[in-house]
Design goal:
The structure is a single chain. The protein is α/β, with parallel strands linked by helices. The protein has one domain: Tetrahydropterin Synthase, Chain A (2-Layer Sandwich).
Length: 147
């Protein structure tokens, strides 16, 4: 039996506002995000059944991340729930996601980790996430740091 890590890359567009931040990020702005999702698991190759030889199918990982993360955050405005009363109810804000945390890359990654972990098969664990916000800035979440 061998342990492997699989990583899949995803892209999405998202806008956010950081309330009370002392800088430009307190204004409504968006990013073209890249998300790297790495999972870890055992591979057993004792027989030639088609279900062996993989940690998990990349297609299954893609479906989980698309269903739980991309469909939720892509082309959305993500703001703290305290902004519900100040946002207009206009069609351009129809995909607004209200969260109970400051929508920083770090907090968004924590949210993503919880959602992905709940959907992974029993024998697979989330190893780490990397969320790239700009070409030269990213945040990381690692399971070993959060146990």
């Amino acid at each position: 039996m061998a342990i492997f890590r699989l990583t899949k890359k995803f892209h999405f567009e998202m806008a956010h506002v950081l309330n009370f931040h002392e800088g430009a990020c307190s204004n409504l702005h968006g990013h073209s995000y890249t998300l790297l999702v790495s999972v870890k698991g055992n591979v057993e190759n004792k027989n030639l059944l088609p279900t062996t030889g993989m940690v998990m199918d990349f297609g299954m990982l893609k479906k989980i991340v698309n269903d739980e993360i991309i469909s939720y955050f892509d082309h959305a405005l993500v703001v703290h729930e305290s902004m519900k009363s100040v946002l207009p109810t206009h069609a351009i804000f129809s995909k607004t996601v209200f969260v109970d945390y400051q929508p920083t890359s770090e907090n968004i990654l924590q949210d993503m980790a919880l959602k992905i972990q709940q959907k992974l098969p029993e024998n697979v664990e989330l190893h780490h996430l990397i969320l790239q916000e700009t070409p030269d800035s990213f945040a990381e979440w690692w399971l070993n740091d959060n146990c």
